[in-house]
Write a structure and sequence with these properties.
Elements lengths: L2 H12 L7 E5 L26 H13 L4 E5 L9 H10 L4 E6 L6 H10 L4 E5 L4
Parallel strand pairs: 1-2, 2-3, 3-4
């Protein structure tokens, strides 16, 4: 555990606070849709782009050091991020109990479904938006 994580945990405990258990990460602003109601105004021409995978891995690692247990990957459309599956696998390798993916569900491929099945992760939750 890093010195910074140890200091943060100590400060939280001394203040009588609990550590956060779940983090929601908007991994991209890109989306395959352009819904009028979208709060992040996602879409290819308005996209904020992808958060670098290296940055996301660092944040996940730091979150686990702070005793975090779960992550929700969102966006935009998280399946637009080229590293979404690797991030899911990485979160699982860190020992996260739960990983949720908030998606419109339109970009799933047969290969994606096979990869998710092979991951054999009971803590995986797929949250499909029906309001797009």
């Amino acid at each position: 555990m890093s010195v910074a994580a140890q200091a943060a945990l100590r400060a939280l405990r001394e203040a009588g606070l609990h550590t956060p258990r779940i983090i929601t990460m908007a991994i991209t602003g890109a989306c395959n849709l352009t819904c009028e109601h979208c709060l992040v105004e996602a879409g290819e021409e308005r996209s904020a782009g992808h958060v670098p995978e290296r940055t996301l891995r660092r944040l996940l690692t730091e979150f686990v050091e702070l005793e975090g247990e779960a992550v929700c990957l969102t966006g935009g459309e998280p399946l637009c991020h080229p590293g979404w599956l690797r991030l899911l696998q990485f979160a699982r390798s860190l020992g996260m109990e739960t990983v949720a993916i908030q998606t419109n569900g339109l970009l799933w491929t047969a290969d994606d479904v096979t990869a998710l099945r092979e991951l054999d992760f009971p803590g995986l939750t797929l949250q499909i938006s029906l309001d797009g």
